[in-house]
Amino acid sequence: MSRGPMSLRLRLFLLILSPLLIVSVLLGMWRFAVAQATAEMLFDRGLLAAALAISRDVSISEGDALSPRTRALISDAGGGEVFYHVTGPGGIYVTGYAYPPIDSITASGPGPHYLQASYRGQPVRVLRMSEPTTIGNMTGETIVTVWQRSAERDAFARALARRAAALMIALMATVAIVVWFGVQRGLHPIRSLHDAIALRSPNDLSRIQRRVPAEVSGIVATLNRLFGQLDQSLKTHQAFISDASHQLRNPAAAILSLAESLPEVDDPVQKRFREQELIAAARKSVRLTEQLLSLERLRYGGALREEPFDLNDIAEAVCNDLGPEVLVRDLRFGFDRVDGPLALRGDPVLVGEAVRNLISNAMQHGGESLTEIAVRTAAEAGFAMIEVRDDGQGLSPNNAETVFRRFGQLEPGTGSGLGLAIVRDVAHLHGGTVTLEKVSRGACVRIRFPLPQSNANLRENGRSGCA
């Protein structure tokens, strides 16, 4: 069973405590080394004090045994049991333990010499010093040797280290408690923000007004921006559903009315006429439904399908498909393609739908003066261009905002008001633009698609504007 993600509180706790723990371990190692050095210094000074006291007592007593006061001083100054050995001028034994650890002592000269040696199988720290002394009628060097077990020094160093470790452990425990509850307190604004968001309903997409720390303000700003986009998207969907239901109501009612009246018609000619009206109404309804689905696919259909295609081939295929319908209305219909390919990447089905809508829009809204529809492709300044021109009643560039809006119509007609909206969305989805060009007669709609970099240097061919 996989474990869940680590909580932010625990993550911050570990991030703060981990470096402190590492520092405390390094500090403990340093403190133990300092404790050992301190123990060495203190015990060496104790050995020196004991050696000086022994040398003074021997000099005063002229070789007699140490006084009780000196022995007490040696015990107090040494911090533990101290052994000593004294020889007078000529190497005569004066006092102390008979067998010092002399095998390892090679130092010479009057100053104190510290050495490591072994005494009765145990490591010891040895101090040897000599000074001129007169005992009786003999004058010479008195050598004082004192030593102490190293174990006593190590025990003292460990005691110092344990006290330091106990202090650091207590300090780390205190810091851990403070950090644990401090992080909990510091995360209170985030928990409060979570509670505020959890209380919201699906219908509440208003901005979050709660005050939060600077580190969280970016998240809140992103959430507010997302809420605004969702709210706008929902409003757009609601408006689209309302408009679509309004647009579909009339065709559906017309189909139902024609279907109900058809059984009552006995005249074969009239019945045939009603059947043609029913078929036309059904086709209009299907076309409107297809356009609505296409528009929603463009707005909310996700990623664009990417594949290479030639704009010339797409335009020619659409013209061939709609050619018979145009000719039935006794209109002149022409297609002028650029020399060479217009290679693009995108969704050829959507591009073909855009071209189809331009031609259908010209047929539906050209009016009684419409006699010609011309389709042309060209390459200009890094763009592949296709334009549809007619000589009908015309469209002014001033009306572009209205005609390219969904369900936008300049005047009541048989169209759905979706054709040019689909054209605009297809162009934008492919990184292009669609414009209404100013012409002396009729209407001219132009779509520009940016050519891929490899085809951006295609030569211009044909006119750059509508005649």
Automatic annotation (TrEMBL):
Key word Kinase present: yes
EC number(s) given by UniProt: 2.7.13.3
Superkingdom classification of source: Bacteria
CDD domains in alphabetical order: HATPase, HisKA
Listed PANTHER family: SENSOR HISTIDINE KINASE TRCS, SENSOR HISTIDINE KINASE YKOH
Record domain Histidine kinase: where: 243-453
Name by which UniProt lists this protein: histidine kinase
Principal location: membrane
Catalytic activity: ATP + protein L-histidine = ADP + protein N-phospho-L-histidine
Gene Ontology molecular function: phosphorelay sensor kinase activity
Broadest EC class assigned to this enzyme: transferase
Family annotation (PROSITE patterns): HIS_KIN
Any matching Pfam family: HisKA
